[in-house]
Amino acid sequence: MPTTAEDLALLDVDTVLTRAAERLSDRFAGVFSPETVDRYVHESYVALFRTAKVQRHLPALAEHFATDRLTALAHAKGAVTSPVPQVLFLCVANAGRSQMAAALLTHHAEGKVVVRSAGSQPGGELEEPVAPMLNELGIDLNNAYPKPLTDDVVRAADVVVTMGCGDACPVLPGKRYYDWAIDDPAGQPADVVRRIRDDIDVRVRALLAELTDNS
Question: What backbone torsions phi and psi does residue 89 show, to the nearest 5 degrees?
């Protein structure tokens, strides 16, 4: 049978994912088996594919997502250690509040904290006003994308900050939990989103001070 364009596209994606798995197998050699790495890469791609609106760069994003998940899993298992606290921001879509919080904490922490974000029901793309509001502060969100909540990133976190994900946000023993009541920026005018951003920024700075003062 002749090969269709769709077949070729799938073959190309699989080739890219296989090469990504090979790179990550080298990176995590001695920590995870090549089979585990390959599974994480392909699972990460499928998880992003389900919700992403733009799928052109999904294989590259899948490698990035799998890297972060494997790093988190290695930390949770004690295979690697981190000298700094690990913070996870959670909201429903991971397209607004949690993305802003993660970007702001990353910016202010300057490597003193490991920061991740995720969504209980991730959106297809970032909410439109979020990136411009952070650009006003010199923070670039060009490489940010909504990510589904996975067990590995939760288990790796020392601190979990929830923002409106309700019962979908898991509660595990040994974690410090904060629930921030913050308005959703989706569909809001620029002045409202700016107020939400500034509210998050104040909370993030306070959290960073608490974490670094106790470290």
Answer: -100, 130
Give the model confidence (pLDDT) of 83-92 as tens digits: 899 999 999 9
Say if residues 147 and 122 touch (Cβ distance below 8 Å).
yes
Q: Each residue of 122-135: pLDDT tens digit?
A: 998 999 889 999 99
CA distance 73 to 215: 22
Buried b (16+ CB within 10 A) or exposed e, 122-155: bbeebbebbbebbeeeebebeebbbbbbbebbbb
> Which amino acid type is present at position 100?
M
Determine the residue type at 169: C
Tokens read off for 127: 């909410």
CA distances from 202 to 95, 104, 121 (A): 20, 10, 26
Q: Of 120, 143, 122, 100, which is closest to residue 48 (Cα–Cα)?
A: 122
Residue with tokens 């991740």: 116
What is the Cα–Cα distance from 215 to 86, expressed in whole angstroms? Answer: 12
Q: What is the pTM of this model?
A: 0.89
Contact 101, 74 (CB under 8 A): no
Q: In the structure encoding, which two tokens stand for residue 108, read together?
A: 């202010």
Long-range contact pairs involving 44-49 (C-beta distance under 8 Å, separation at least 24): 44/69, 45/13, 45/17, 47/148, 47/150, 48/145, 48/147, 48/148
CA distance 122 to 46: 13
